[in-house]
Structures are given as structure tokens and as C-alpha cells.
Amino acid sequence: MNYSTLKKGLAVSFVALMGATTLASAQDSTATSSSSAKVFGGRGQYRTWSIGVNGGVLSPFLAIGGSNDFTNFDANLGYGISLRKQLGHAFALEGNIIRGKVSGSNKDAVGGAVNGVREFSTDVQYAADLRGVVNVATVDFLRRENSVNFFVTAGYGLVAYNPSVNGVDQKGNYGEDGDKDYIKEAYIPVGAGIKFKVSDRVSFNLAYTMHFIDGDNFDGVYAKATTKDKFSYGSAGLEFSLGSKSKPALDWVNPLALMYDELKDPSLRQEVEALKTRVSNVEKSVEDLKKDTDGDGVADQFDKCPGTPAGTAVDGSGCPLPKMETAVADNSNLTGFETVQFEFNSSVLKTESYPTLDKLSSVLRENGGKVTLHGYASSEGTAAYNVKLSKDRANSVKTYLVNSGVNSSAVVTKGHGEANPIASNDTEEGRIQNRRVESARN
To answer: What is the pLDDT confidence band of residue 322, given thresholds at 50, 70 and 90?
Structure first.
């Protein structure tokens, strides 16, 4: 193992880490958050793109152990770049490219070689992948602003490499035609790391990633045909947030603190108080609409005849109904009521029909008995359709009477269609008169 190179790399990482931690603490003590971001404001209110550079140590061994074709490894320099898109507070997609050299030896084996193989050295032309990045410490219940985040990664990529065994370089002899410089294999990167916030724009990252290759020739030997080769990359680097300075970086936003700030926003409290006032005014207006001083069943706002004596039968405007003829009180046909007219091809009551229907309702409620509503139509349309239309018109009148307090069983409806016209269907004036409902006591 090349201990000199490893110790230099660790020393540089330690110094950088101490400097980043100190700077992050200084930033937290002096900077204040003035973000106007809202809990449900969407990603557009944040910076979501970042670019990073990194360097570190490449090794054919993994921290979790496992089988290897060589007994010893060298610590070699690796370097790379990354581009990340933050999709939420805790998840991002990141593209990575790294380069460098991976090497190892059998110097601790008996005779310093295994099957004649003493050492290998693999040049990594590139290892490019796309990873999902999960922040596992974005939500902080204790601190309003985070300065340290932990993350885990996993993805899929492609590596191009050239292995040399015992110093023999096979570059230019790969591929189906034996004319390629590099072997290309798929791999799966799995890693974890820690991120330190240096400023609103910059973070210092420490990461460790294991690369599981879909092949057994990364180290140049097929010592164990059923195994797959792998290599690891321990790195340190800087990440730079891209976008408008007025926006915060999404990966450093604590949604709990954001929600608390929004709930404590004075303007929001003012809006809530104003809304309470408006609700109170609406409730008061509703109570005023319901107020009926004389108790005649018509609200004061619509009562055209206020102060009517108790028990007086009134119409829809609160005015006393005229006394009915004696003939109305017995079981003869109702008299004194106009027919109810309708628009062409319509069963909707006209507002001018309400006073007539209010009178009819009052008579039925005071004197009892039953009434039959006969619906009619003009001659437009088919006979079957006109029968249905005339029945609908009669039912519209019944609905009004029942809603005004008349017992439903006291009202019978019949639809006669075009039968029994009271005017000629050859003119529009006559057809208007034929679109009607007539009432008769049973």
C-alpha cells in the first residue's frame, strides 16, 4: 500500500474539513435568513441546480470487505465533477464523472505472486453515472437552519477502463476486433457522505462510493470467474449552488422551520383576523335576513306589509291574502285563479306566477281538500313529447305548492299534451295561451 500518498490525502481532507466547519459556524452566527419562500410555493422559489468538483483516493478494496483478486492495494489519486438537480427537500438526481487509476499487488502473498500475477494497474478513462441522492438530515426539529447534512446515493453508470497486469499494457487490443483502447462495463454506485454548509452558495462534501462492476476483468485477471470486480472512491470536494442570489438553495431548506415562519408571519395573522371579521359580518347579515318581526313567515327585508296581525294569511310579499268566495271553500272547481303560463319548451315557473300560486297554496292550507293540476302544451313537437312536457309543467306547480306547506298527497298532476287548447295553435299568440297549467278542486 502507498501509505505516503494516503497520508497526504487524509491530511488535506482534514485541513479542508476544519476550515469549512469554522467558516460554516461563522456564517451561521452572522447571517440571517430573509427568504420569502412559502411552504407550498413550489420549486420555482428555490435554487435547485448545483455543480461540484472533487478529488480523493481510488482503491480496488471496499470498506465493507468482500473477496479480492489481490492481497494489497495502492491509494491512487482520483478526481471528478458532478451536476445535481434538487427535486425536493430530501431528494435529488445527480450526474457524476470520475477519472484516475486503480492498482494493487500480491506482495503479501507467498512468493509475492498468485499464479504468476504480481500486480495490476487500471487506468479509468471515465466512470459516468446517474444517481439518486437522499438527504437524511434535512428536517431538523432542534435547529432552524442546518449546517450539516448526511446523504446516501445509489444509481447506474458506465465505466471505460484499461487494465495492465505485471506492467504489460493491453491498450489497443480490446473489443471484438481487438482494436479498442478501453473495456466498457456497466456498474452500480452505492455511497454515503456528509455535507458541510460553507455559505449560501458553497458546501464542502465528504463522500465514499462503492462501484460494483458487471465484469471480472477490471483488475486484468479472471482469478475467480463467478465474482465481479469493484473499486471504491473516497473523496472530498466543493459544491456550488447555481441560480439567483435572492433564492435559497432547496437542499438546505428546513421545511419545519419554513412552516413555523409562515404560521408566525404577521401579515398572515392580519389576514386571519380580517377573515374572522368578514365571517362575523356575514353571520350577522344572515341573521338579519332571517328576522321576521310580525311572525307571518316572510322575512322583514322582503315583507312589503310589516305588522300584519298574528294568524293572517299572507302572500309571498307578506301582504294579507284577499278573502275567497264561498264557492272556493266547498268542493267545486277553484275560481278566481289565473292559469299558470310557461315559456316555449320549458317547465320552469315564471316569477309572475308566484302570487297566483301563493293564493292557491293559502286556500289549500286553510280549507283542506285536494286539487288536480292539469298541464297542457302547444302543438310544436311530437304528441308524446308534449304529454311529457305538460306533465313536467304540472309537477313544477306541485313542487312549488308542496314547498309552501301544502301536503303532497293533496295535489294530483296530469299531463294532457296538446289536448283541450284554449286558443288556436296556428298563431304564436294562441300557442302562448296553450302552454299552461290549470287547477281544479276534487
So the answer is: low
